[in-house]
Amino acid sequence: MPKQDIISISDFSKDELEAILEASFKMEEEVNAKGSLDLLRGKILASLFFEPSTRTRFSFEAAMFKLGGQVVSATGVNFSSMAKGETLEDTIKTIERYADVIVIRHPELGSAKIAAGAAKIPVVNAGDGPGDHPTQAFLDFYTIKKEKKTIEGLKIAMVGDLKYGRTMHSTIQLLSLYNDVKFYLVSPEELKTPSKYLENVADYEETEDLKSVLPEVDVLYMTRIQKERFAEEADYLRLKDSFILNKSLLANAKNDMIIMHPLPRVNEIATDVDEDRRAKYFDQVENGLYVRMALLAFVLGKIDIRKLSLRANGERGNLLNNG
Amino acid sequence: MPKQDIISISDFSKDELEAILEASFKMEEEVNAKGSLDLLRGKILASLFFEPSTRTRFSFEAAMFKLGGQVVSATGVNFSSMAKGETLEDTIKTIERYADVIVIRHPELGSAKIAAGAAKIPVVNAGDGPGDHPTQAFLDFYTIKKEKKTIEGLKIAMVGDLKYGRTMHSTIQLLSLYNDVKFYLVSPEELKTPSKYLENVADYEETEDLKSVLPEVDVLYMTRIQKERFAEEADYLRLKDSFILNKSLLANAKNDMIIMHPLPRVNEIATDVDEDRRAKYFDQVENGLYVRMALLAFVLGKIDIRKLSLRANGERGNLLNNG
Amino acid sequence: MPKQDIISISDFSKDELEAILEASFKMEEEVNAKGSLDLLRGKILASLFFEPSTRTRFSFEAAMFKLGGQVVSATGVNFSSMAKGETLEDTIKTIERYADVIVIRHPELGSAKIAAGAAKIPVVNAGDGPGDHPTQAFLDFYTIKKEKKTIEGLKIAMVGDLKYGRTMHSTIQLLSLYNDVKFYLVSPEELKTPSKYLENVADYEETEDLKSVLPEVDVLYMTRIQKERFAEEADYLRLKDSFILNKSLLANAKNDMIIMHPLPRVNEIATDVDEDRRAKYFDQVENGLYVRMALLAFVLGKIDIRKLSLRANGERGNLLNNG
User: Which residue intervals of chain C are DSSP H helices?
Assistant: First the structure.
């Protein structure tokens, strides 16, 4: 059996995505019931963060611990061999001799794929610069499915920087696999979604006006807008309030809408929204743990994808290979 | 039951302090008997050092490992989310989704309390700038109780920088809960104890002359004096020798006196003192491990505080909730 | 029994080296059979890298995890106590209260020995600047013994920077303990082996011409040559091709020759050599894991050196003290 990497969400079929989602729900059940598992006892994760990201690093490392495994960890400043001129491929071919799975965050587009090509062990992409961040897309998917039970028929507003927002692009493409999904793409003109990410999107509407679409929305996905993205400060000042969510704006939203955000936020969601039961952005963080547990167990051969498909189709059974 | 944080020594009653002390002694017994425990198996500590402190970080992380738990760890340079403008509250609300307990060292006064207020999980203060460092005060307390058996009736000299020395202030306040304790506060005029820390201190004497008080002393607590604290170098040169402990000065001290220091030392204790059996400053380091084990177990609900009180009053029983 | 440190390869007799080698082979067997061991359950390694070396740090930390132990870890930037003026001895006397064994990498010659002198617990040298790097020499030794079965009678070419290459010096001395070993020392005139490392070497030949000696060689040990080492760029340009190994040059080598390199490489071995079955440089990395497992278990009293000697002499038995 060829080794399994997690490089891009687009590498997975809808069935596979559903199976991994099912495994993630199973992980949440297991953690709630037992606290931690023994599935990866004796296994070592090499956590390679060529650029720092404390939250993503902690999420993967905690996921590994919850599965009973161990972690060797390095962040940007420590990659002494590469300072001496070593290639990424050689670094990976070295690290894989100490570990069973590699998680890599690297500032360059395509770096995770290069790492996966060099490695005999599974590689998980934790963000390759402007490229993919598949585990974030998985956890968004998980959060929507958990809260709304279904993807089909949803009206989803993506708000903020839709031009540079890596997460948004993956999530839009993933959700477009489902029928009858309507997207409201709410951004300033300067930060519209690049057309290539909309090729397979059946139903969408672009607007600068969050307030008018808000009453229709089932999922409100907010992102950070950076002032530096605007050529003219006047444009920023004109538009920024449309993209700040607060309690009074929320009065017009559905009672069962959910509010998401990839975090960190700066001021695009007022803190008075945090106590609203529709706010799910900190729950997203926790969901990331279950998704990453499922993905680590999956690439290390501890999840039977066929059984998962059965389960995703309603049958129950023991998903985890404890052998 | 509300969650338990460890923010300041002043949050605890004398009974609670005694109970935690008792639990710390129990931890030392258990470590000596078994090497390590399983009390926190499956639990994760998030070790957040916004400013570096290798010794304090290692102490907490080793304590967690000795209890069977795991650790995700970050030091100053890695807090990438906060560089993007995230608040401390949001950082904490994120991290708590990966962990069961947070240990925080942060340069700003009051930061640990802010973190505790934001978190649903227990927060332990590992030093908030000029504020508190309660686990250091606990380990000082533990060391004195272990070596002298009682606090009552002791004559304690605190020597060095009593103006800025955070540890000294907490330790003075803690020991003042006991009857009949006499403090010699030995410091240059420029570095005297601020009066607010002496409000509840019944019996103290301020002096610049260590030599003359030394023969009376049961506990000699030395600290580092930084040259930069003096306006005039002449004052520093005049006084520095009074605050350096060496073998010949020790000749005038009691045989059962103990010598303490929060470490790191620079030159305020000559290395020829290290071999003196009265020197306890490296033992303090080890005592910190037992105290931090007790505190981690306590905030995670693994120590029954009522049973501890019984034990502190002489009854024996199984202190640890293994459930 | 006195504590055991690992400071320099020259501290060990030939019998002891063979015994540790035997223990390392045992570790490889155990890892292949079981994945990981429980030999150091409850033990803590303090991994102190005063200068960064991700690969060496990961190797020791992974070795500790494979033995069931735990790790507290710090790299250069974090040594806050030493920034305050603490001596290395005091740092070590503090750290040892949290840990059972210390691994130290430090830029200064002799620092590991100073650390070992200060510590009551075992200290393992992971490189002390221009001094020793004994675990690298052990893994080179292991790799040759594993691949060639014997050291006696081998023809070994050491290629590259033989003047500054710390690893080379230790490895030459170690292999010189065996009879009938012939060394080809292949380097530019500017980078010849210092004579003091050749005092006990019975049979060697110095040359600048790799191509002509290659057909004789059983072990080809390549190292990196730094352009900066040459006074004249013309010399570098004249010589550099002699020290680059590629597929066409390899055509003249023995079929059962092995190719080694301490890594990282820059361009002294072309990547088309990686797929050649004689290339063993990434296997060396993995061998380092087994050797470091054996050394950690050895210094912590979990390997019975007398039984190892028996085994090295052909007898079989249970090497590991599981008690």
Answer: 14-34, 54-66, 80-83, 88-95, 111-118, 134-148, 166-175, 210-213, 233-239, 247-250, 281-299, 305-312
